[in-house]
Amino acid sequence: MSRLRALWQASVNATKRAVVWNSEDLFPPSERYIFKFNSKDEVKKWHLYSDSEYGGVFSGNLSLDMSEESPWRIRRSGFCGMRSKKFDGFIDLDSYDTIAMKLRGDGRCYISTIYTENWVNSPGQEEDNSWQAFVYLPQDSWQILKIPLESYLPTWKGNVIEAKLEMNPARVVGMSLSLNAEGGVPGARTGPGDFRLEVDWIKAMRTL
């Protein structure tokens, strides 16, 4: 291939990429995978946390015990979760209205959290804004759960903020799934003990 033809081909390829990018930007797909838990590299994008940071115990079993050596003064224990590591920038979900997850539950009620850029909290605070919704599935059954973004409530340290606030889905910085030993929806299994939640994928959907 001559040098002139090679330059022409490179220009054509660049133009094609630009056209594809612009078309997807103007007309995004109706569904977009955020996470697919189908490889070790995907799992590495998440990390675990629990009340062990405050003196509790986490080993696939919820415990209400608190270590006497804990430097933290808390009144309750028995929570854990998995949170995605910080995105490289933001994920723009402004073109979508629903979060969908393929899950297999254990009869407990979990909490889905979306973290967005901090603009609700006071200036100087480094914590992301959190928006939460309950996730409840019957035991041992794969299901696709769909949660409208408008169903996610603004929270601060686990408590719902009693104010009219709107999530900015264009500035999503992370997500998490967590579990408390107490609380949740009526009929869900609660209390200390074993837990197991299997996740196949998480995606954004446009349903309207």
Automatic annotation (TrEMBL):
Its main location: mitochondrion. It comes from the Eukaryota. Keywords: Chaperone, Mitochondrion. It is found in: Mitochondrion. Residues 35-199 form the NADH:ubiquinone oxidoreductase intermediate-associated protein domain. One of its GO terms (cellular component) is mitochondrion. It holds the Pfam family CIA30. PANTHER family: COMPLEX I INTERMEDIATE-ASSOCIATED PROTEIN 30, COMPLEX I INTERMEDIATE-ASSOCIATED PROTEIN 30, MITOCHONDRIAL. Belongs to the CIA30 family. This is NADH:ubiquinone oxidoreductase intermediate-associated protein 30 domain-containing protein. It comes from Brachypodium distachyon (Purple false brome). The gene is LOC100833886.
